[in-house]
Amino acid sequence: MTHEAETIITVQDVHKWYGDFHALRGINMEVKRREVIVIFGPSGSGKSTFIRTINRLEEHQRGKIIVDGIELSHDVRNIEKIRMETGMVFQQFNLFPHLTVLQNITLAPIQVRKWTKQKAEEIAMQLLERVGIPEQAHKYPGQLSGGQQQRVAIARSLAMQPKIMLFDEPTSALDPEMIKEVLDVMIELAKSGMTMLVVTHEMGFARAVADRMFFFDQGQIVESGTPDEIFKDPKEERTKLFLSQILSH
Amino acid sequence: MANLDTALPPLTERSTILRWLRKNLFGSWLDSLLTIVGLLIVYWALKGFLTWAFTAAEWRVVSANLRLLMIGQYPIEQVGRLWLWLAFLVFLTGTSFGIWARQSRFAVGVLMLPAVLALVFPFEGAARTWLLALTVIGVAGWLGGRTKPEVLKRSVIAGWVIALPIIILLTHGFSESTTGFWAVAKTNLWGGLLLTFLLTVVAILFSFPLGVLLALGRRSELPAVRWFSVLYIELVRGVPLITILFMAQLMLPLFLPEGMTIDRVLRAMVGITLFSAAYLAENVRGGLQAIPKGQYEAAQALGLSGAQTMIFIILPQALRLIIPILVGQFIAVFKDTALVAIVGLLDLVGIAKTVLAQPEFLGLQREVYVFISLIYWVLSYGMSYLSQRLEERLGVGKR
Questions:
Q1: Among A36, A53, B159, B324, which is least packed by CB within 10 angstroms?
Q2: Which chain A residue is nearest to residue B307, measuring alpha carbons?
Q3: Are residues B170 and B203 in the same domain?
Q4: Which of these three, B121, B149, B184, is where a domain ends?
Q5: Is A87 in contact with B308 (Cβ distance < 8 A)?
Q6: Does B384 touch chain A (CB under 8 A)?
Q7: Statement to judge: residues B22 and B47 lie in one domain
Q8: DSSP secondary-structure letter at B154?
Q9: Between residues 166 and 225 of chain A, which touch chain B (CB distance below 8 Å)?
Q10: What gap in Å lies between CA A15 and CA A64, rounded to an integer?
Q11: Same domain for B257 and B109
Q12: How close, in Å, is residue A112 to chain B by CA atoms?
């Protein structure tokens, strides 16, 4: 565990504007290897925008983002390298509807990592075992439930063997009874030592596996700390108010 | 007796027809009235046509000129070459049906078509033999495809890829000498359905990739590419096809260096292709716009490059969405080729005009035009039907 304390993501004073709207106002964050970070906050607070700047689905206009030693810039090769090392799971799953589950998972390893079809399929089947749905390999996404689709999406990201996993509200589009099956997979992943950035309102998940939590509001980090600190003794008024709102129901 | 009637199951077919009639045509007194009036109108409209078709019409104009209508003035000596590529196509079709449409009754119908044609239409002896042979070849391919689908898949796909070059090569010929089986058949001798078919196939096969490229170009982030695509699409869509054909036939020679000529059939092919590409580009663009942004993002997040995203994720979905529109466009291309008759090529319509110019067939326009309309309709409807089947097949996994 020599690299236990090694920093894998550095974010310094990141700003982003949509036209006149100042979506991110000077975000700073350091993430260490094997850390699980939970980001939460009201809608429109910039938390999704922020997580999407890390694999450059959104471009930041000021500041610095360094992922695994590579700085994000306009250089396309750097962007592609970072995307190979970074998996992302979306709120709307975004599976490819014209491909089977197995093809969804093997496409990028075959095309980007240049694995053989056989190797890619072996690893895909292992991952489907891991997320608990190996029997769905030859179905199309449209034939699966939301929870199953999201688990395929997680397997698809893991197939690229990323060093970092980004989750953008992975359970927000799911029916309540399906949230648990996805969270279970994510908890298992966290315990296996994956570096994770998770935008979510699932406070149970945060309590169970988060190392640190960040509360976003109006494009800024209002407060950060361990789950214990955030839940038991929030410093900021806004954090208290938001937590009481989402924990009360 | 009444009891007996209810106890016995009615003849299912008769009863469904009766039920259908009652439900749809005689549901109420108003429905009945409308049905009767409708039938009278249909009778009145068709009576004249049917009487004409079966009594007055002189179909000998068609039977005497069947060969002209099919292949124009293509040299008799070399007609065997056309049969060769037709046999190749039928074999590929049969094998493909055997591999990919094992259960399709439509497939069997298509393969039987040449034999049916041979029996119904007054073809010459040799042609009749060839047509019967085509059905045999097609069925042989079909059986082959059914028994060994995995083995044949690759070869069949390769066969389709080289089909167009083979068709063109065989139709054109390649021998230096002016006589003999392999002698070159000049394109001014190509005519009738043969020419219509070649114009259509070439235009469809080349305008499709061109249209996709233009559609992508119109959405490109590079201003030069984008503006070129927009300019091209809007310019071409702004003029009628006939003017493009005229330009290709009459204006193009002005731009070429002296002594250099481009084949007239080739010019027509290029004209139709360029015209069709502009329309296809807009259709494809419509399909591209229907693909949600999340698909691009998921592909990018996985590290796929822009080109890979297009080829593996976006285009397959976009093109599948627009199959009905694409087929509509292909049918339109097929029918639009008729315009080449105006610039002097002898496609189906062009050859029909020359047939009618013969003194002995003066005044038989109706017979000839009804016949070629029938050909256009059968082939158009065939394409349309095929596309519906294709849509059903590809519907799997749609969300």
A1: B324
A2: A111
A3: no
A4: B184
A5: no
A6: no
A7: yes
A8: H
A9: none
A10: 9
A11: no
A12: 6
Tell me if B303 and A84 make a contact (CB, 8 A cut-off). Answer: yes
For A100, the closest chain B residue by CA position comes to B397
Tell me the residue range of the domain where B8 lies. 2-56
Pairing relationship of beta strands A21-32 and A195-199 according to DSSP bridges? unpaired
B355-392: pLDDT as tens digits: 999 898 888 888 899 999 999 999 999 899 888 888 88
Examine residue B290 and state whether it is found in any structural domain, yes or no: yes
Q: Which of B296, B302, B399 to mutate to test the interface with A (most CBs of A within 10 A)?
A: B302
Which tens digit of pLDDT belongs to each residue from B320-358?
999 889 999 999 999 999 999 999 899 999 999 999 998
Rounded to whole angstroms, the Cα distance separating B105 from B93 reads: 14
Please say whether the beta carbons of B198 and B190 come within 8 A.
yes
B295 with B391, same domain? Answer: yes
- Give the nearest chain B residue to A89 (CA atoms): B298
Closest-CA distance, A245 to chain B, in angstroms, reads 30
The predicted structure's pLDDT at residue B1: 46
B141 class by beta-carbon count within 10 Å (0-12 exposed, 13-18 middle, 19+ buried):
buried
SS (H, E, C) A36-97: EEEEECCCCCCHHHHHHHCCCCCCCCEEEEEECCEECCCCHHHHHHHHHHEEEECCCCCCCC
Work out how many domains chain B is built from and give that number. Answer: 3
pLDDT at B17 over 80: no
pTM exceeding 0.80:
yes
CA distance A59 to chain B (A): 13
Q: Which of B398, B399, B397, B385 is nearest to B101 (CA)?
A: B385
Q: Nearest Cβ partner of A142 from B301, B313, B399?
A: B399
Instruction: Encode A30-47: b = buried (16+ Cβ within 10 Å), e = exposed.
Output: ebbbbbbbbbbbbeebbb
Whether residue B304 and residue A111 make contact (CB cut-off 8 A), yes or no, is: yes
Residues in chain A: 249
ipTM of the complex, rounded to two decimals = 0.93
* Residue A215 C-alpha, separation from nearest chain B C-alpha, in angstroms: 25
Is the Cβ pair B302, A96 closer than 8 Å?
Answer: no
pLDDT, one tens digit per residue, over B57-88 is 888 888 888 889 999 999 988 889 999 999 99
- The whole-number pLDDT of residue A207 equals 93
Give the residue from B165, B192, B380, B200 showing the smallest Cα distance to B273. B200
Residue where the block lists tokens 């044609």: B117
CB contact under 8 A, B399 and A157: no
DSSP type of residue B290: T
Q: Which chain B residues are Cβ-neighbours of A157 within 8 angstroms? A: 301-302
Largest CA distance in chain B: 94
Inter-chain Cβ pairs, chain A and chain B, closer than 8 A: 72
For residue B141, the one-letter residue type is G
Tell me the residue type at B346.
Answer: L
Residue stretches of chain A with pLDDT short of 50: 1-3
> B399 in contact with A at a CB cutoff of 8 Å?
yes
State how far Cα B67 lies from the chain centre.
20
Give the Cα separation of B138 and A74 in Å (integer): 57
Degrees, nearest 5: CA angle B162-B167-B168: 105
Q: Testing the interface with B: which of A74, A98, A117 to mutate, by most B Cβ within 10 A?
A: A98
